[in-house]
Amino acid sequence: MRIKWIELNGFKSFPERTKIELNEGITCFVGPNGAGKSNIIDAFRWVLGEHNPRILRGEKMEEVIFQGTFSKKEKGLAEVTLLLNIKKESTNGNDPETQEIEVKRRLYRTGESYFSINGKQSRLKDIKEIFISEGVDIRTYSIIDQIKINEILFKPSQRKSLLEECAGISLYKLKKTESETKLQSAKENLQRIEDILNELKKQYSLLERQAKKADKYRKVMEELKDAELKVSKTEILNLLGELQKLKNEIENLENKQSKLKEENGKIIEKINHQKKYIAEIEVTIQERDNQIKQGELEKAKIEKELALLAQEELNKKEQIKKLDEENTSIHDEIEKAQQELKNCHIQSQEIEEFIDLIQKEIISEEENLLTLQKEIVEIEKLIEKERKTLFSLTTELANKRNNYQSIKKSLEQVQNRISNIEVRKKEIYQKIRQMETEVKNREIKIKSLKEDYQEEIYKINILKQQLSEAEGLFESQSQILLEKKKIEAIINGKIEALSSEIWEENSNHKLFFECIDVSPEVEELVEIFLDDKLKASIIDKIEEIERVQHKKFFFLKNNDQTTAESPNLPGIKKIKDFLQIKDSEISGEIFENLFIVNSLKEALEKRRAYPQCSFITTKGEVIFSDGFIKVGRPTDLLKKKRMLEDLKAEKNKLTDDIKSIEEEINRIRAKREELKKEIEEKRAYITQLNKEIFQTEERYKTFLKDIEQTKQRLKYMENEEKTIRDEINQNTKLKEEVYVEIQNLSLCIEELEAKIEELKNEQKEILNKNDIHKEAVSNKKIELSTLKEKLNSKKIEIKRLNEHLKTISIKKLKNEEEIEQNKKRINQIEYEKAERIKNLENLNLEINSLKEQRESLLEKLQNEKSVLTELEKSYQRLNEELQSITALLGEKKTIEGEGKIKLENIWNEIYNLYGVDIIKEEFETVQEIEQLKIRITQLKNQLRDIGPVDVDILREYEEVRERYEFLLNQQEDIKTSIKELEEAIRKINSLTRRKLKETFDLLKDKFNNTFQELFGGGKAEIILTDEINILDSEIDIFVQPPGKKSNSINLLSGGEKTLAAIAFVFACLSIRPSPICIFDEIDAPLDDPNILRFRKLIKDLSSKTQFLIITHNKLMMECADYIYGITMQEEGVSTVISLGLKEAEVYA
After folding, report:
1. Care to name a GO molecular-function term for this sequence (predicted)?
2. Which domains does the chain possess?
């Protein structure tokens, strides 16, 4: 197989249709980071069926669709197409036939996705079968990236996948998985069919017995129907005559009632008119009251305003008096401020004259300071010169001393080195003896470890035999448990179905039927009597009804009832004798007066004698104590409840059996896990023994090399000791010469220090004189500063006084203006007071007039109310007469309603039983109706003896028989299918086990050879953790590069790990080459020499495998037959260009 081209459209960073031609040999993809090279690899993964978005570097699958950029809109779909060229072997000896297959995958942004082969929509399974049959699998070595490199080294499952692909059993594994799925499904179907057959067999036997009763039942029903229709027609005709007589009486009463209502209407009209007139007078009185109240309020308001105006006038006069007093005070303050301003100007002039005198004295003192400063500078220059000379001598002395100490220290170190060499020589002699002893011990240990290895192999075989026995026992017990759980599931289904029928809704209250136990023989009678009351909610108080408003009936606990004493009827059974109340808070009085009789006629006779009792016939007809008759069919609620209790008891017994079996299974499982754990421990111990044997042998060889190297090191140390002793003699002589030079330098330094001290004393005397002059200048400056501050304060005071004079003058003017305004307001207040006094007098006259009108209206209102009282008495008299007629009319209508209800009950009963309109249809009537009713009772007793029979039972019986035979055939077919699937799985296991073993043996040698070729030596090995059970065994890997002792993968460098994984991949490729192999930057950790070896392996296999390589390495590009450059000329949009080698180096 070869891929001719791949086409991307809207996939990730390829918005436009991009077609990449792929030739045989090696094709490289180069380009900067982020340009979209890895998106091409993702496209291969995606079209080959990858469904995990994380492996495609996303969170959800829709992210593979181009998301859009600033210049390009997002795409609505992603599409990748591959064109495959597959060569098929010819059957007639001619050249192989070539077949081209186009594989396409498309995903819409709505989430809709599909695959197609040659333009026809296909399943993912068909796509996978094509590629797996040709040796291409995205989970193995067809696509290798840096993540898979690490997985190969550190995940045994990944190595096992590569081995399976190398052995060519991936297609077999796929078929085995499908067969196991089908097998499981077939077993489940078989179990379901067997369960259905068991149920059908019971139903089949039952229907066969019921069919025999059907014919007898039909004949009795026909006679019963004819008798009941005659009786019902006769009763209905009698009822219709009685109802017509009642109708005439009701019409006469209704006419008389109509006349009385008309007279009543006239009186009511007069009463309403009188009430309306009285209401109008009352409204007028209310209006007068409101007007009087409004006048009083207006009067109070005017009086309040007069009081406020008088108070305001008084306040204004007080304010004028205060402002006059304030102006007098301001005048005195202005005169005082003017005098203070004059004094401040005189004091400022005196301070300025004294400041000029002090400034002249300061200048004289500063000239004297300048002269002393020049003398100090000259002396400091002389001191600095002498100090530099002293510093150079001191530095030289320090260097000599440091040199002396360095030589001294060097001598001490050399002496220590000689001591250390002597100690090390002794240690080396001791170490050589120890290493020779260790070599002998290693030889003994290697022999012991090999013996332990053989012993542990024998123990594992014994444990595996025990595990196999435990597995068999576990399977048998699990099968028994499965059968029990299936029976339990059937019972649970029946319980759930019955529960859902009995309890139609969730409720926090207990239902009435849960509180009673009824004998099976009267279950149907109790159900007919109580009907919906059986599902009444039991409540403690009536307030709970509001929270459960959807219920029809409720039963109140502890409801004390006073019931008449139950009569004793000989030969008649009580319902209460056949049931038991389970809840002590529920009274059984509702069943106290309920009796069972044989027929409706007997019930009617007994009711006339005992009207407080209710009676129910054996056919389910109920006559209540209030006269109502009820005919109905039982709901089977109590029967279902009894069946539910039986099923729960059966379930509890089954649960106990399951629990004991599960305990046994858990015990077996614990033993099995213990054996597995012990086997795993033994396997781990064997692996450890292998490693330990390998490491011990390597250590043994290392010890031999170390002994030889240690002897060479001893000889080198003896030569080093001789060299060090010569060095000690030279350093001793140099130490004496440096000591003499140090003594001479110390004398020169002491002379210079004495001279510097004399210059410092002279400098000190001059500084004392300088300090005296400085102090005098400082005092004068302080005094000058004080005077300047005084002068500033005086100027500030003058400014403040000017501003104060200005402020109080302005205030005086404002006070004078305010006095004038207050005088004007007082004149205005006098005018307003006169106006309000005049208004108050007019308002008093108006209020007195309104009070006189109100008294007149009250007298008129009293007269009209007397007239209304007389009219209401006339209305009361007529109303009493009307009520008596209405009561009589109600009684007649009640009797008519009862007759209609009885008529309707007869009609409903006949219509429900036979679907006949007894009123419209013509039937024969009879004179001796009682004899016919006795015959009806006899026929019903015959029907009850026969029991309930479904008239369609024969048809149902035939349908069940046909279905039973069909399921038997299906059962045989599934059993045959299960045997075929189990045989197919056994053959696949046998074939894959053989292929895996052959391929593993071949891969073991290939891996070691490829490793040595890439590393230039060393060794590599792969080991099965369980050689007996190779299908479930994992693969351990051990590698040892040349020159290294450790065989741990974790201690390898990044490049060595990559080379080791590449060696494993190419070992697999050399056994079973893949048609295409894609490498995504796996050469990144490799240096140039390793790149060259890696490149050689690719070249050797490129004739059989089509290589697609993403790389940044120039050496890898040199081996490419074709190079494509991937760039992003526009941000977010990848472009593919064909390149030469030099251009590729630029893009890399």
Report:
1. ATP binding
2. 1-142+1077-1147 (3.40.50.300), 154-210+980-1073 (3.40.50.300), 502-635 (no CATH)
